[in-house]
Amino acid sequence: MASNDDPSPAADPLRRRRREFARLAVIGAAALSLPWALRAAGAQGRSAVPVEAPGPIVTRALPRGQGTLPVIGMGTWITFNVGHDPRAIAQRTEVLRAFFELGGGMIDSSPMYGSSEAVVGQALRRLGHPAGMFSATKVWTSSADEGLEQVARSQALWGVDRLDLEQVHNLVGWRAHWPRLSELKAAGRVRYLGLTTSHGRRHDEIEALMRELPLDFVQISYSAGNREAEARLLPLAAERGIAVIVNRPFQRGRLIDRLEGQPLPGWAADLGCAHWSQALLKLIVSHPAVTCAIPATSRVDHMRENMLAGRGPMPDAALRARMFDDMAALL
Amino acid sequence: MTEWSSYTLVDLLPYDRATAYRLYELAHAGLWPAQWTAVPAAFAFAVCLWRGTRTSTRVALAILAAAWGMVAAGYLARYLADLLWISPTLAWMAGAYAVALALLAWRPGRLAPSASPCVRRLALAVAVWALVLHPVLGPWLTERQWTGIDLFAITPAPTAVATLALALAVRGWAAAWLWPGPLAWAALAGAAAWVLVLPVVAATLAVGAAAVVARLACALIGPREPPAL
Could you give the CA distance from residue A324 to residue A331 in angstroms, rounded to a whole number? Predict the structure, then answer.
């Protein structure tokens, strides 16, 4: 029997049992906590990576096989019309930075939008004119001469030698503009030509012009709250190889306001949608005739939401029909 | 032109409320220290309106002419023009209106202040709304900042409503020259208030409309005034 004076644990059965107990306790505690540790580590790992749908942004073919275009672009109506406000211009530059970081392409503007073209131009300069921009703007005047001046001004403001897309805004003066713009296209100053309308207006005229003119692009409104374009314009665009830009996918926020607060349906998770805005955009850009949607925003977080809608799985025709039905029930 | 006829109010206002409010701040900062002229001018205008003599009416007209000139050259031509394509045209129109008021101050013809106490009190009440209450209500009730307050001779709203106050306070055929400014502002501000949801502007429009009705009532039920000499 070991004496109490012997410091060695081996010499003291009680101390040996205490030591053994402690060792087993540690092992047991570790074993019990392992699943929690792994779960915590796994969660930490997921949150360390930005939550985003897998894969690159989905693209659509440009007319005449001249490349592709990301399905989510950016509009600038109201959102970029901030005049000479340095604070707002800096903030819009960050919005544009997020747009390009997440694979954005088309930026759509117009002289009608006040200072939007100029603000976009300033932001582009600050960002060093990122590659991948698809410049889309418009002429908005009844005068053909003024239209040419507007084209030149747009090029100067955005620092581009050639605009990717020049559109006749809301069909204003299209008869006067079309020959001149066609000359610009032939001369290589403009890559594509298009016409625009919005709010579901003047679809009859647009349809007639889609049949009559060699259009490259048409811009129309199409959303969960306005499906009129499905009947004739979208099929006609597909038939004639005309690219389609969709404006007002949120109806200037009205659709999101009506849906916000409602729980997302089950299909949203399958599509990688964490927000109604993403569901609304996937619904639109998944139509086979749609080339690109151009939601407008002045917020970086909303821009990120919008751009993520262009990634991951897209609904097929059956799911699109369900999505329309589900949203219609909520709107 | 069918293309233009398809436009609605929403299409013609290409900026949001936050940008509009921010524009007022930028205008105040850029036009400083014009406010040191504008505030005494507003006070002098109110005093002239209160005095209600032929001479004070002409001085009030001259003050209004200067105020509209400042609004035209400042806020409309230099700031709103950044956002709104029609603003340069509005600036020219406001400038022409300023010239017309200056001519009226110089040659008032048979323009005379109303002798009716009812009318004079009504006009003074409208002037107080234009020069004090409307400016204060903006920052107090909305997200508009005090640094972007509505101010007579700096921004259109109080200038137009102060003009309405004088229009209500005078009689004679030449008084018709005073109405284009308030009416044009009412139309444009009404459109903006509708699209951008501007409650204070809507309230001021209601006050203006009520004042016009009250003026008609004063004329109909009050003692008949002698013709302006």
Answer: 10
